[in-house]
Amino acid sequence: MKTSIIPALGKTMLITSIIAFSALNYGFKAEMSEQEWLSWSNKCLNTSFTPGADLNLKKWEIVLTNDYFLRLRKTYQQGKQEYFSFNLHRLSGIDYLPGDTLSTIKLSTHADDIIVQTYEDPEGDLDSMATSIDLPVHNMNTARFDSLKSAFNYFRIKSL
User: What is the mean pLDDT of residues 14-22?
Assistant: First the structure.
């Protein structure tokens, strides 16, 4: 009987810990709704993501959807587009690699779970899969990264 209760308690404790940790770091309410988590995560991603040294990038769009997909689309000056997408239930790791002027969030999945597509590429369009994606970020201190990591883990668990 105890073995069937332990996994349920572990999941409940993990979700409670994530919410409590985030509340301490960013003044979140202890009972944030899923929509509030999504809104905060998207705001964090959009204010922190940066194209970095890629001067040919015309525009970009990064979004965490209601069905827990993280999507990134980059459009370059000559019209080439790169598209990356994966469901957070496949997330296996999230690391923060600090830099002097530009930092990186590395998202890893269990296998080749990240969709990678290119369009209007002079070298030919590409459809492939990847196991990780690097997101260049700025203005991302450790507390903010920890909160984003907590939010991603919250959605990873919700999508199981």
Answer: 48
- Please give the Cα distance from 84 to 7 (Å, whole number): 33
Radius of gyration of the chain (CA): 17
Q: Tell me which amino acid residue 107 is.
A: L
pTM: 0.79
Give, for 9, the enclosing helix (H) or strand (E).
Answer: helix 2-26
pLDDT 10s digits, 44-101? 999 999 987 788 899 999 999 999 999 999 999 999 999 999 999 999 999 999 988 8
- Cα–Cα distances in angstroms (integers) from residue 29 to residues 70, 119, 121, 133, 145, in the given order: 24, 42, 45, 31, 18
| Sequence spans of domains, the chain | 2-158
* DSSP secondary structure letter of residue 88: G
CB atoms within 10 A of CB 119: 14
151: nearest Cα among 105, 98, 104, 103: 105
